[in-house]
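ARCHIVE CARD
Drawer: 12
Card no.: 0347
Subject: one protein chain, sequence and derived structure
Cross-reference: see card 0346
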Amino acid sequence: PISSTRLRALIVSGKLSAAQRLLGRPFSLMADVIKGSGRGRSLGYPTANLRLGPDILPPHGVYAVRVGVKGKIQCGVANLGVRPTFKDKGSAVHLEVHIFDSHQNLYGQTLEVHFIKKIRNERVFKTPQDLVRQIGADECRARSIL
């Protein structure tokens, strides 16, 4: 039998490979797409902003993900955290997903996000251009992982 306490501890501590071995699949969560500020789109990386519930979450950071959209699995990169570069008001945790090669309107859809591997910790960038360069590198890394 799988211990739910052990599984939660593995996810919260970022030990996603160990959690996957216990689950027999990658850790995932389901969330609805909500309207965001449009910042990702303006930076050239449109994102689906997801409404997080009281889910167990892995540590803040950037992840290679697979996303279930309308019964189809697509690859992408996700940021889980507080978006420190833009100093958003409050310290609410956000999950935003950039799905590769996709321009779908996902507002109101429920997505299942499978966390495959953490790419890096969330961090502050001096300029939006520095962030865009890093997102490009994150995308390349995620594509090679997936």
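Annotation on reverse: The beta strands are 28-34, 48-51, 61-69, 72-81, 94-99, 110-120. The longest strand covers residues 110-120.
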